[in-house]
User: What shape does this take?
Amino acid sequence: MRVNFTVNGRKQEADDVWEGESLLYVLRERMGLPGSKNACEQGECGSCTVRLDDVPVCSCLVAAGQAEGREVVTVEGLADFAKQRAGQSGCASGACGGTTVDAAKRWQAKPQSADGQTGEQVELAPIQQAFIDAGAVQCGFCTPGLLVAADELLERNGSPSDADIREALSGNLCRCTGYEKILDAVRLAAARGENSAAGQGA
Amino acid sequence: MGVTRTPTDLTQGGRTGAGIGASTLRPDGTLKVTGEFAYSSDMWHEDMLWGFTLRSTTAHAEIRSIDTSEALATSGVYAVLTYDDLPTDVKNYGLEIQDTPVLAHGKVRHHGEPVAIVAADHPETARRAAAKIKIDYAELPVVTDEASATAEGAPLVHEMRDDHHAGHVPHPNIVHRQPIVRGNADEAAKRADVIVSGEYVFGMQDQAFLGPESGLAVPADDGGVDLYVATQWLHSDLRQIAPVLGLPEDKVRMTLSGVGGAFGGREDLSMQIHACLLALRTGKPVKIVYNRFESFFGHVHRHPAKLWYEHGATRDGKLTHLKCRIVLDGGAYASASPAVVGNASSLAVGPYVVDDVDIEAIALYSNNPPCGAMRGFGAVQACFAYEAQMDKVAKELGLDPVEFRQLNAMEEGTIMPTGQPVESPAPVAELLRRIKAMPLPPEQQWLAAGERADVRALPGGLSNTTHGEGVVRGVGYAVGIKNVGFSEGFDDYSTARVRMEVVGGEPVATVHTAMAEVGQGGVTVHAQIARTELGVQQVTIQPADTRVGSAGSTSASRQTYMTGGAVKNTCEAVREKVLEIGRGKFGTYHPAWATAELLLENGKVVTDGGEVLADLADVLEGGAVDLELEFRHKPTEAFDLRTGQGNGHVQYSFAAHRAVVEVDTELGLVKVVELAVAQDVGKALNPLSVVGQIQGGTTQGLGVAVMEEIIVDPKTAKVRNPSFTDYLIPTILDTPTIPVDVLELADEAAPYGLRGIGEAPTLSSTPAVLAAIRNATGLELNKTPVRPEHLTGT
Amino acid sequence: MDFLRPASWEEALAAKAEHPTAVPIAGGTDVMVEINFDHRRPAYLLDLNRIGDLSEWEVGEKTVRLGASVPYTLIMENLRTELPGLALASHTVASPQIRNRGGVGGNLGTASPAGDAHPALLASGGEVEVESVRGRRMIPIDAFYVGVKRNAMEQDELIRSVHLPKADGPQQFSKVGTRNAMVIAVCAFGLALHPETRTVRTGIGSAAPTPVRARAAEDFLAAALDEGGFWESGKTVPPSVAKQFAQLASGACNPIDDVRGSAKYRRHAVGIMARRTLGWTWESYRGQERSASCA
Assistant: This one.
């Protein structure tokens, strides 16, 4: 069958899709967007998390045909998505609702931004930069799903408590980090969101 | 169009101070957060086919016949291969013992063994075709534990053993046996005021790396094959793959693709040979990606173990002796079992001084799933048992468990049960002191947020099982010892190629190794080392492949030591070469060329006093210095097969944990509240990564303490929970705060004084959690993982 | 495999009538797992995502009509007052991503004893609205679960909604799993106090071939509360009553040993959860009574 939907703001079309294919498979194998990861294909790890009409879902459990006509945001589009959000609200991190001073104080790791990463300078969403800076990436296989989930959390709640972060990310397994630096990254993105909001006099 | 999303160079600039010791950020970080990083499952080729593996549905059976005709006739199917299609006489592979069939030959020895492979134009086509392959199995009886494996008339898992362990094992169903005997344990036992014994059971753990086994094989015009794959050791794969394909090693060109975690589970081959066979047969690129179900069958697991321990101690708290017997279940194929036996036996005593020991470790062949490498192997199982024993002995003596450990802690100069002296700092007592001194987390944190209990901070978490009822706190301690690097006389080396040149006026270093970056951050450290040694800012890390010499395995906590050491070593040689060229050109102009200690700094040759002698651009004049060198750690010896004596190990690594848990004693549910760690790392080349490794390793130890276990049916030897629904690993709500205290006591024999760090935190985490649960409940708890049934007597 | 995409409820019913073996898919959180792991190859997938009505709910005077596909997240966020037990159960479903997709209709359609919604639905009481081209019928929740992963529906029927009474008293839900999040129930327990009728209802998950009520426990507790005048007095329920209630709840289980837990543990845990949820709901009832009498 043929499937049409919008991915990261662009209309996409896939032909000869087998009816049992998941949205994840179509993104990865037919649309050249393998950023969303295939770690469990049973909704138990969150590595394939995408926004489907804004809602974070496991793309491995969405039948490709169910995405017909809908809007999908993947990790590949996260930076643009955040930029657009910033354009609308002046808040790229989604976390401009403010961060408690306590939360910012708890932040410990030393961020070392703009380390001259690979090749050309890429514009990143605040949560992406925070993951790099906080050391939240090791093998990185869980990272795309975590970024989509964490970005959505900060969009909803700009100053989440640690328990809020843990609950929001409890559907995303990571096997490398022990999650501590992932918590750090979300705290950092939240704190930076607050700072940038303060900087704007917001 | 060729392969898309191949691994790329990672070029990282850096500021001053981005050398060793700095928390430099990952050079692959941007690629990984944007989804651009090319993992092995992301490989794609225009005309590629999908490979699929048909696996045995039974654990032990004779294969009477295989009929592939219907599968082959399926539209869209390009090839169906079985044992009979293997192209050469080499039909087995294996890390140390080549006992693993590429495809089952006449019989299957474990549930999920590969029997046939299919290539088709769509994964579903391949699956449907595989389902049409008819296999006639005649079931055979299974052996699943020591009793059934060594019973009279037990079926032999491998009938015609001719491997190098076959001659010294007491039974053909024992892969390897290693006794360690020193002093006289029986005599020493007579001096003991207390004797404490216990039997401990360690469950089968899965690495559960998130990126399933996958890769792409592309047939080449020269009859060879290009293989993009996620592995821990490219050259070890190559050595096993090429003979099966009947190709010389230079025609099997391997490139490391992005690796989604490893933890030992990629040390053995999985889909590598299968993809190459299908690619060579069909003349088309073939991609194989396991799903999670298949991944549980696609790699070896951590050896489950039974351990019998007896310790004696004098009234004043000194250990007198150790007698122990460790039985590891290696499953159907040898994999890393011999090395696991070596670690378990030689480290069975733990980081303690015990002069009189009688230790025996064996690994079984059985029809259970094959077991092999996983983070801390051998040492993990032993640590679980000896740390439980330490608490028991301390209790028997009425001593504080930490003080008792400190009383018996090994230190630099201690002689190990193998007779090997400990030749670098062994701060066991100090690590214990540090974790004990850390402040304890506040009580009843579930009440912190308000008047209503926050279930997220309670045992059971979101499932809303308690609002505080039945919840009891416990605290437990543990410490462990792990060997670093490949032991027992293995020629363990690593190779690095380093090129230095000036490009556009900028000095640039290029580092090329075959080191498997599996997430540990080796690529970050290599760039840091090059900056420190060559005084450059910009470093390019080339993709790991087999065009450069072997880097050895990303395992045994060895890569920073070994390939990091190789990069350092080669950089030093490159620097010397650059200086030699400089001396040749400019030596006569300045006496310092001959007399001073010279360094490279920011593209200049400078004296240690800071005087600039020359510009690198002038020294190299558009040329480059390009060297490839091997690096070795100090040689080790095999353990004597009878006494276990021998200088078998390179270096030791130590970590200590304090666990604070809250147990719902009525429901048997556990919340780990905090897991504090202290670890000696020798030298933290990248402190941020060091802490990340320690926290990650700690969490894997937590997992096996309270939830992780592959459950194998003892009657059928079939795996009962091959999914992430029923094999549970910790979520972020199960993982506590993990404060880390890093100690840096240099090992003078190691590059920069560093100590391999990846595994030690996985050892003591598990027994610390168990000790805390025992402390909370008063129960014995001799098995891991602890299940609610154990805590509730149900 | 064919993918059917009805744009309306009527089209969906017609498609189901024409292809009775078609597998309805809404959140996909059960069906897609089975497809991804090759456990199921239906001839037809019947996508219900286009039928907006299924994702809506209406709060009436006495009841809530909850569309079959209303995601658990929305139940948690919007129906905590009206359906507190189901809202609590919803919060324990898998992960945030799954809660964003899955709904009660999926749990009912699959009818697995481990479905998290079942104990809450049983404790609440209510009816399942199912329909086919032959007509609509309301199946009482008590008659819905008929066997292991079998429900009382005909092959051509689809679940449209559930009709649940608005809570008239405190409700609780508790579930045991061996992980603190994202876990399938080892066993689960739901309890609803119904002060208006002076009754209590329960639901047990994963401890019998189907979700079940602990009727003997309910009857015992209702009688004990009534006879002791507890509804009026709001006095603390004596431990002996709680203990007996817990024992009877355990007794209602008919569990098996499996990889998730032993039968013995399940029986034990259901008893503990019964006692605790009784404590929580009764405390809450007393609190409401007190504040009501102060008002």
Notes: Chain C has a mean pLDDT of 96. DSSP finds eleven helices and 13 strands in chain C.
